[in-house]
Task: structure prediction
Amino acid sequence: MTDRARVLPAPAIERLEYLVRGSVEVLEAELPYVTLLLRVRGNTEVERAALDKRRAFDRFVAELVTQAARDGDLRPDTDAMITARLLFGLVNSIVEWYRPAPRANTRPLADAVCAMAFDGLRVRRG
Result:
C-alpha cells in the first residue's frame, strides 16, 4: 500500500487518505493478524524488523502531512510527525474495540475514520 501511495498521481492529501482508508480495510480484513502485529515490542529480530518498518511508515506519512500542509490542504500549524502518529494511532486503536459482524462491509468503517480524520467533528459556523 505504501509503495502505491508513493507513486499515486494525486495530491499528498489524497495519497494520505488512500493510506488511511487502505489501512482500515486491511485491518478489518486481517483483524487477528494486525492485532498481533500491533503488539510487537522489539523482543526478537522479527519484531525489531517490524518496528523498523513501522517507523519508516511513520516517516512517510509525516512527509505526506508536510506536503499536504504546503499544498494548503492541511492546517499549516500541524506538526507532521505528531499528526502521522495520531492519525495512525486512531486507525490502530480500532483493534481494541472493533468486532465485525459476519460478512461486514468494510466501506462504512473506512468512510467513518476518514470523515473524522480529515473533516473532524465540529461544524464550522460562519
User: Anything to note?
Assistant: The mean pLDDT is 90. The chain is about 70% helix and 0% strand. The chain has one domain: 2-119.
